[in-house]
Amino acid sequence: MRGHGDERMSEQVIIVGSGPAGHTAALYTARANLKPVMFEGQAAGGIPGGQLMTTTEVENYPGFPDGIQGPELMEAFRRQSLRFDTRIFTEDVTEVDLNKHPFTVTSAERTLTTQALIISTGATAKRLNLPGEKTLWTRGMSACAVCDGALPIFRNKVLVVVGGGDSAAEESTFLTKFASKVYLVHRRDALRASKIMQERVFKNKKIEVLWNTVVTDVLGEDVVSAVRLKDVETNTERELACGGLFYAIGFTPNTELFKGQLEMDDLGYLITKPDSTHTSVPGVFACGDVQDKKYRQAVTAAGSGCMAAMDCERWLAENEK
Ligand code: NAP
Q1: Model pTM score
Q2: 102: cis peptide before it, omega within 30°?
Q3: Taking the CB of residue 31, how many other CB atoms lie within 10 A of it?
Q4: Which of 245, 308, 300 has the alpha carbon at shortest distance from 272?
Q5: Which of 147, 162, 184, 187 gets mutated to test ligand 1 (max ligand atoms within 8 A of its CB)?
Q6: Tag placement on the chain: N or C end, fewer CB within 10 Å?
Q7: Residue 24 CB: number of other CB atoms within 10 A?
Q8: Domains defined along the chain, listed by start
């Protein structure tokens, strides 16, 4: 018997990461009888379950017409993985060795070897770590306008978006559907976003760009009611009343573990072969936000988790592992 219940033997597949991508990969590999092992860690994403754990209402995951709380959705994903006997270890993976096969995966508690590895460690949205952020996060603050922008608390409010890249341009444009006005706050005097996205921002009458400006704090009792802004040229500060603050200052893919072992792009995202989840090492697959800087949605992550499981199953069969 290979793997199951005996930690000295090689597993067939280990999944690192427990967001929508990881759990969908677990579900599909479990139902393919590959007896997956999942590590759900805390170090990289902050909490097992990924970014949905710090979201409130999820209204854009198909199948939930009335919406669902992010943590509740992830609990359902987890229960479904367990139902098909995924073994889940709540431990951070501290090291992986992909240089020899079978691969080695190490946590503080154990070292396992595996024929195939599915990486779904996600990405972490950067935050400004403002003083008011601890109490107001998810109470009018978010790092995903596409996920949260349509929530009732943001309707017909003045909203603030921080950043100057494609995300900031896209998200401020998106938010004008719901907001009475959107301020795009950028620390320099030029956007980094692509020209076409910039034009959309400049043409939109609901968006006002505040150049050379940084947000120094977010204020509010129960929910966001204002931000404190600083003009970096004059050093003058002022308060701006608003009902929401969105960060669009980039993401950090959680790929520290794989540096030097897998091909990454210049931002650190894992590179997968076109139309597949194969990474640069045969038998190692990547899915979800760790390899996707474009779509970043729970449903696209789940879809790519399914792809990784199917690629993995085929690879194991073809290589008779
Ligand atoms: P990004 O390109 O890294 O832009 C981050 C922006 O946030 C920059 O303008 C940066 O300012 C600003 N910023 C970073 N740290 C900050 C801080 N501490 N305080 C204030 N401002 C800060 O990130 P992104 O916009 O998320 O895009 C990431 C990648 O995804 C890009 O390759 C982008 O093209 C792609 N993307 C594509 C699409 C699309 O095609 N639809 C949509 C979204 C993203 P500076 O400019 O001064 O550095």
Answers
A1: 0.79
A2: yes
A3: 14
A4: 308
A5: 187
A6: N
A7: 28
A8: 7-124+251-318 (3.50.50.60), 127-247 (3.50.50.60)
**Structure tokens belonging to residue 58:** 């999820």
DSSP string, 122-141: -EEE-----TTHHHHTTSSE
**pLDDT per position as a tens digit, 195-231:** 999 999 999 999 999 999 999 999 999 999 999 999 9
List the chain residues with pLDDT less than 50. 1-7
287 is catalytic: no
Residue with CA at minimum distance from ligand 1 atom 33: 166
Q: How far is the CA of 248 from the centre of ligand 1 (A)?
A: 7
> What is the distance of C-alpha 249 from the center of its chain?
14
Choosing from 144, 242, 287, 312, which is the catalytic residue?
144
Q: Which amino acid is at 301?
A: A
Q: What's the pLDDT at 6?
A: 45
Burial of 141: CB neighbours in 10 Å, binned 0-12, 13-18, 19+:
buried
Ligand 1 centroid, distance to 167 Cα (angstroms): 6
| Residue-level pLDDT at 49 | 82
What local confidence, expressed as pLDDT, does residue 225 receive? 98
* Ligand 1 mutation pick, 293, 295, 296, 300, max ligand atoms within 8 A of CB: 293
Give tens-digit pLDDT for 282-297: 999 999 999 999 998 9
147 is catalytic: yes
Nearest to 52 by CA among 222, 260, 288: 288
For ligand 1, which residues put their CB under 6 angstroms from it?
128, 162-168, 170, 187-188, 192, 214, 248-251, 293-294
Residue 53: per-residue pLDDT: 78
